[in-house]
Write a structure and sequence with these properties.
It is a single chain. It contains ten helices and eight strands. The protein is an alpha/beta fold and 277 residues long. It has a single domain, classed as Vaccinia Virus protein VP39 (Rossmann fold), CATH 3.40.50. Strands 1, 2, 3, 4, 5, 6, 7 and 8 form an eight-stranded mixed beta sheet that branches. Helix 4 links the parallel strand 1 and strand 2. It is globular. Bound molecules: S-adenosylmethionine. The site of S-adenosylmethionine has 20 residues, from helix 1, helix 3 and strand 2. The site of S-adenosylmethionine (SAM) has 20 residues, from helix 1, helix 3 and strand 2.
């Protein structure tokens, strides 16, 4: 299992350089997720959580990869429907493929704003995006949506009077019940113009083993809350669900045959896409 987690190679010209905002002694959700994905932008403290999680939930990172794959199928779908601007909240560290690359392959003028609470995302993405005038990255907290909508890099760059692709992918499960996740998602939906789409995925309690992984994440990272299918479906209230609705991610508009029964990795996250009429 260890051979899958080979991080620690901070991507920078000088391998010893760490941006001042990066604390390698404290785990970061973005870097733990990177470790689950088999990326290299993580530290020992992050890998310890991913390894403990994989012990309890031996999907070898498949859930994270399924989530990423569904994210891209969704962005491709929205771009093909004519969506040319995206707000990707809780975007995570850029990896092999990203929202902007998927959208801009279809529409080179598509605009994307990445939002993440972790400043590591900004410092990491800055270099990658230096030459991409249609893509921006900001550090902000999804619990403060107005600060995002009125951020100087967002206002005037995204036009909220036109349809938008709102991405809340694998981020709402980092909100506790006491933080009002439904109300917060409602705020994002209320800012979407008719014709917009919202893609949302969420850690799902459909398999009992997911509770073990949830236990590891809550204990070691303080966040990562599994919710049941009914709770996940409720996040889409007021939107028309794009076929096939809210499902386990391998079943959302797959590009090929889906192997059944679904593996643990396939069961651990559910989600879908809603269309605002
Ligand atoms: C599991 S990763 C998902 C990344 C990407 N959306 C994906 O699905 O591949 C969750 C990301 O959400 C970010 N995050 C967690 N809480 C957040 C908050 N309150 N506001 C903004 N971002 C947050 C984390 O820093 C992390 O990068």
């Amino acid at each position: 299992m260890n051979e899958e987690l080979q991080g620690g190679n901070w991507t920078h010209q000088d391998p010893d350089y760490l941006p001042p905002e990066v604390d390698a002694s404290k785990p970061s959700i973005a870097r733990v997720y990177d470790a689950f994905l088999g990326g290299k932008d993580n530290f020992a403290v992050d890998r310890a959580i991913a390894l403990e999680g994989m012990k309890r939930f031996p999907d070898r990172g498949e859930g994270a990869r399924q989530n990423r794959a569904m994210l891209f199928r969704g962005v491709k779908y929205m771009t093909e429907q004519g969506i040319d601007q995206f707000l990707d909240v809780g975007s995570g560290l850029p990896t092999m493929d990203n929202t902007h690359s998927v959208a801009q392959r279809i529409n080179p003028d598509a605009r994307v704003v990445y939002v993440d609470i972790d400043p590591i995302v900004l410092s990491h993405a800055r270099a990658i995006l230096q030459t991409n005038e249609h893509t921006r990255v900001i550090t902000a907290d999804m619990r403060e949506p107005e600060a995002i909508f009125h951020h100087p890099k967002v206002e005037g760059f995204l036009d909220f009077s036109r349809p938008i692709g709102m991405l809340l992918v694998a981020v709402v499960h980092h909100l506790g019940d006491d933080e009002g996740p439904e109300e917060l998602v409602n705020v994002y939906k209320s800012r979407m113009a008719p014709g917009s789409y919202m893609q949302l995925t969420h850690f799902c309690s459909c398999a009992p083993e997911v509770r073990d992984l949830e236990g590891v994440l809550l204990a070691m990272l303080g966040t990562g809350r599994a919710r049941d299918m009914k709770e996940i479906v409720r996040f889409f209230d007021g939107l028309e669900l794009v076929e096939p609705g809210v499902v386990h991610l391998p079943e959302w508009r797959p590009e090929g045959p889906v192997k059944k029964p679904l593996s643990l990795g396939g069961l651990c996250i559910a989600g879908g896409m809603g269309h605002k009429r």
